[in-house]
Amino acid sequence: QAQLVESGGGLVQAGGSLRISCVASGLTFSSYAMGWFRQAPGKEREFVSAISWSGTSTYYADSVKGRFTISRDNAKNTVYLQMNSLKPEDSAVYYCAAHTMVIRTTAWRYWGNGALVTVSS
């Protein structure tokens, strides 16, 4: 069945950059909107960014606008999140998700297992 696998997480110092990726299989990737969510310890999962199936529309949480960029390569069944100017408050487990359309709630159809991103101060 559908599977989403994140990669690229790790430890980075404040002000640094990191790019995480999500490879999808078992679904028609080009037909799905893709999104990124994150969850820090003791906090609820929150929306970070999303991109439409065509890649023509992108969405960002206010907290990451101007710093993060979402993109997708349908030929590679991959969605990316480029994270620049990272802050300690960006530290979280980042989850990749797929859905029939972009929504800002967490009710997305498919989810990856997450990638840990830690930003040190």
Describe what this molecule looks like in 3D:
There is one protein chain. A hairpin with a 6-residue loop joins strand 4 and strand 5. By secondary structure, the protein is an all-beta fold. It is built from no helices and 11 strands. Helices cover 0% and strands 50% of the residues. The strands form 2 sheets. Strands 2, 4, 5, 6, 9, 10 and 11 form a 7-stranded mixed sheet that branches. It has a 4-stranded antiparallel sheet with strand order 1-3-8-7, with no helix packed on it.
Give the arrangement of secondary structure elements.
Layout: E1 3-7, E2 10-13, E3 18-25, E4 33-39, E5 46-51, E6 58-60, E7 68-73, E8 78-83, E9 92-99, E10 110-111, E11 115-120
Parallel strand pairs: 2-11
Antiparallel strand pairs: 1-3, 3-8, 4-5, 4-9, 5-6, 7-8, 9-10, 9-11
Summarize the structure.
With about 120 residues, this protein is mostly beta strands. The protein is built from no helices and eleven strands. The chain has strands at about 5, 10-15, 20-25, 35-40, 45-50, 60, 70-75, 80-85, 90-100, 110, 115-120.
- State the helicity in percent bands: under 10%
Unreliable stretches (pLDDT < 50, length at least 5) are: none
Strand content: over 45%
Succession of helices and strands: EEEEEEEEEEE
Number of alpha- plus pi-helical segments: 0
The tally of strands reads 11
- What structural class do helix, strand and pairing data support? mainly beta
Mean pLDDT: 96
Coarse shape: globular
For the sheet with most strands, the description reads: 7 strands, mixed
Radius of gyration computed on alpha carbons: 13 Å
Distance between the termini: 40 Å
